[in-house]
Amino acid sequence: MTIFISIYITLLGVILGSFYNVVALRVPVGESLLHPPSHCPNCNTRLKARDLLPVISYLLSAGKCRYCGTKVSPLYPLGEAATGLLFLWVYLQFGLTVNGFLGLLLVSLAVIVTVADLKYMLIPNKVLLFFLPLLLILVLFFLEGPLWQHLLGGAIGGAVILPFALLGGMGVGDVKLFALLGLVIGFPNVILAFLLACLLGSVVGGILILLGIVQRKQPVPFGPWLALGTLIAYGYGSHLIGLYLSFIG
Fold it and tell me: Cα(175)–Cα(157) distance, rounded to whole angstroms?
């Protein structure tokens, strides 16, 4: 049964990932999610059903539009595949539980934020406001543990990013995002998430600079790393913090 559920959860994630791409690419620029229908951004040809199969259509068309030959952004298949794999990870980690459902919401938010931030260097308020009540309900009424840890996590999440935003190193969207994520994962996981985000962002950023893909002092989005650090802390926070304490104890 676990195998069938795993396959279903993964496919669900891939399909939802396709929709999350639409949300991430349209909401920041004020476009409707329904109109116009899916189309090639270069030739404006309306896409047919066979052009909209998550991941598969991209592979079959060799990453190009079938109508004009323009290269299709790899963000589309990567967003779809990442959502499917992360959905599978959440299910295997937490099962069909409240924590599992919360994990799926966190993955959904993370994927949308990542695609939007990579594309526009922007984290849309509308996306955060959509997820806010859903996450709050789970935190307030269904999760175990003291409420003060979540409130402190939200406060720390916003406070730790705010100085960077005031100095122009990050956007206000990062402050709002990490305050929301901190509220969900609570204290001390929020600190772990921030440290992981800084570490991952620095390592990957350094590699991209060495490869010449990114120039020094070129602005890079930090939202994806905050989201990834949060997912790692949510899944393995207790273990990682316990491991660290055992080394210094």
Answer: 7
Q: Is 226 helix (H, G, I), strand (E, B) or coil?
A: helix
Distance separating alpha carbons of residues 229 and 98, to the nearest angstrom: 21
Dig out the tokens for 143 from the structure: 């999760």
Candidates 196, 202, 230, 223; CA nearest to 214 is: 202
Do residues 97 and 182 both lie within one domain? no
8 A C-beta contact, residue 189 and residue 153: yes
Q: Is residue 134 part of a domain?
A: no
CA distance 62 to 58: 6
Residues paired with residue 46 on neighbouring β-strands, in sequence order: 39
- For each of the chain's 249 residues, which pLDDT tens digit applies? 789 999 999 999 999 999 999 999 999 999 888 887 887 777 877 878 787 888 998 888 888 888 888 888 888 999 999 999 999 999 999 999 999 999 999 999 999 999 999 999 999 999 999 999 999 999 988 887 899 999 999 999 999 999 988 887 788 999 999 999 999 999 999 999 999 999 999 999 888 888 877 777 777 899 999 999 999 999 999 999 888 888 886
Nearest to 135 by CA among 166, 98, 172: 98
> Across the strands, what pairs with 64?
71
Whether 177 and 241 map to the same domain: the answer is: yes
Backbone angles phi, psi at 168, to 5 degrees: 90, 5
